[in-house]
Write a structure and sequence with these properties.
This protein is an all-alpha fold. Helices cover 65% and strands 3% of the residues. Helix 1 packs parallel to helix 8, helix 3 packs parallel to helix 8 and helix 4 packs across helix 5.
């Protein structure tokens, strides 16, 4: 074997080892990033919790504010926005959270090396824990709204026994499916604020 051939083979071996080392380091960094997903994406929780209010505020600005409407029109035509509308960009956080697990599960199906499979499985678990946490926060927000709504008396019972029978029908469960609607239809909190009912002689705070 000539010296140039030996050097070439050695360089090839070193290059292969270097690429493998770089790939391993990248995999470790990727795993570390997904393990920190909960802290890195914590702002997403606030975004989802306040999303309806932000959307309503944006709609009102688009309707009433000429300067804001002109800015949004300009921004939507900008190259960095990739021709996306504002509404599409606001939906990106939802899409990102739902697409990451799907992408990782697709990678897992194509992965054979045991340590790599373990790493990808850990990434998927980290993502799913965060998604469950977001859903739990949203349920807590809904439960807090429901708890502030008192039971209402549609019919006044004539005695205690009638009151007892009517009691189960005087509570509106906002977490239950909407009667007569498809499962995809959900209740939305559009506006929350003080409510006063005007009676014959005075006004009464009811919420």
């Amino acid at each position: 074997m000539s010296a140039p051939q030996a050097v070439g083979q050695r360089d090839g071996a070193d290059g292969g080892e270097g690429a493998a080392h770089a790939g391993t380091a990248a995999a470790r960094d990727l795993l570390k990033g997904f393990e920190m997903f909960g802290s890195l994406f914590k702002p997403y929780i606030r975004y989802f919790m306040e999303e309806e209010g932000c959307m309503e505020y944006t709609r009102s600005l688009l309707h009433d504010n000429d300067l804001f409407r002109a800015y949004v029109t300009w921004a939507e035509k900008h190259q960095q926005c990739q021709r996306l509308k504002l509404s599409n960009m606001l939906a990106k956080p939802h899409q990102r959270l739902t697409k990451y697990p799907l992408l990782l599960k697709s990678v897992l199906r194509k992965t054979d090396e045991p340590r790599a499979k373990e790493a990808v499985t850990t990434m998927i678990s980290s993502m799913e824990r965060f998604i469950h946490h977001v859903n739990a926060c949203m349920r807590q927000q809904l439960a807090a709204v429901v708890s502030r709504m008192d039971a209402y008396e549609v019919v006044e019972g004539s005695n205690d026994e009638v009151d007892k029978l009517l009691k189960e029908f005087l509570h509106l469960d906002l977490t239950a499916p909407i009667p007569g609607a498809s499962p995809e239809e959900t209740r939305q909190l559009l506006l929350e604020g003080s409510l006063r009912m005007e009676g014959k002689h005075r006004k009464m705070d009811v919420y």
